[in-house]
Amino acid sequence: MSDHDFISGSKPIGIERGEGVSLYTADGTEYLDAGASYACTPLGHSHPVVVDAVQKQVANLTFVDSSFPVESREDAYAALVAATPDGLDSAWFCNSGTESNEAALKFARSATGNSKIIAATRSFHGRTMGSLAATWKDKYKAPYEPLAGDVEFVPYGDSDELADAVDDETAAVILEPIQGEGGINVPPAGYLETARELTDEAGVALVFDEVQTGMGRTGSMWACQNAGVTPDVLTTAKGLGNGLPIGAVAVRDWIADGAASHNATFSGGPVVTAAVHATITTLVEEGYPAHAAAMGDYLTTELEAALGDEVREIRGEGLLIGIELKRGANRVARDLAMNEQVLALPAGRTVLRLLSPLVIDESEADRLVDALHAVIAPDTDAES
Ligand code: PMP
């Protein structure tokens, strides 16, 4: 069962195949993916380079334990370390975003010798006992208490409250550079820099959860690069394997040296790392982060013109866009799917989130704007 239940009770869509930003049902109906793949397919569906790499790998060697060197893992590792910000020179593969944050919090504790974790209100970091403890929503946590202990929440975006919370008992400050599940919340200018200064002064690990913001989506490979801030630990997953399940944790040397270790049987398996290598090299070589920046600007400008006063705010960076609605986001997402063949996800009660594959072009963006206009602002003149 999914948390995104806006479609339940409606006629099932039954997606059979995908190509680029399009998804198709068995009867050939086409849907525009404006977030249905949840930031997991930055290169679009069935990208030929990824498909080819995965098919070859699965045919040659599907699995061997990570104690034994395998070319696809080594290539993916090198591509990942090259693509992460300078200073993050070691990495671990794992199987999901949740696990990457779980590992990040463990690493921060082992490297600092401290236990306190500072997380933000409206954060989402995952559903295991540690990552869930650092996640804000009570609804997710209450049935499972007690979770991992010693987590303190501070209001997201408030530098003063963060300064009050960071002390010499603190192991980590964990933040999303832009909050995803919490409603596409962009922090005030200077917030991430302040977090960097405070954690540097106190010897605390600064963890950026880039599970939703990373892999080129915000116009840079990582959202923290837009703010010019490098964390001690960066976590990634979702788009890392263009739809195959894999996560990673990239760290500075002092974290790696602090007895950090994390592993699981399937971590960095040959097939998923073949996907990672193909995804990162294609993203970088074909300049998709810059394309995401340009398309994000285009889409935001067009959306402002088409939706205007019918929405409260349009915010985000690149192709991570939140539309703060004047009514429920579930209803809007359902109407988009059923009436306009556009698939997007809510992020909270009143925010519709757009997370199209980065390969979206202007005509596809225009179609998305027209669909949103038809659902959100049907009584006003279309601008686009
Ligand atoms: N962190 C963030 C910022 C996320 O958006 C998500 C997933 N929505 C996660 C962690 C958890 O990732 P996964 O579902 O791959 O475990």
Describe this entry's structure for a reader:
By secondary structure, this protein is an alpha/beta fold. The chain folds into two domains: about 15-35 and about 285-375, Aspartate Aminotransferase, domain 1 (Alpha-Beta Complex), CATH 3.90.1150.10; about 50-285, Aspartate Aminotransferase, domain 2 (3-Layer(aba) Sandwich), CATH 3.40.640.10. The chain has helices at about 50-60, 70-85, 95-110, 130-135, 140, 160-165, 190-200, 225, 255, 270-285, 290-305, 330-340, 360-375, and strands spanning about 15-20, 20-25, 30-35, 90-95, 115-120, 150-155, 170-175, 205-210, 235, 245-250, 310-315, 320-325, 340-345, 345, 350-355. The longest helix is centred in the last third of the chain and has 20 residues, at about 290-305. It is globular, with a radius of gyration of 20 Å. The two termini are about 35 Å apart. The mean pLDDT is about 95. The structure holds 4'-deoxy-4'-aminopyridoxal-5'-phosphate. This is Aminotransferase class III-fold pyridoxal phosphate-dependent enzyme. Keywords: Aminotransferase, Pyridoxal phosphate, Transferase. GO terms for molecular function: identical protein binding; pyridoxal phosphate binding; transaminase activity.
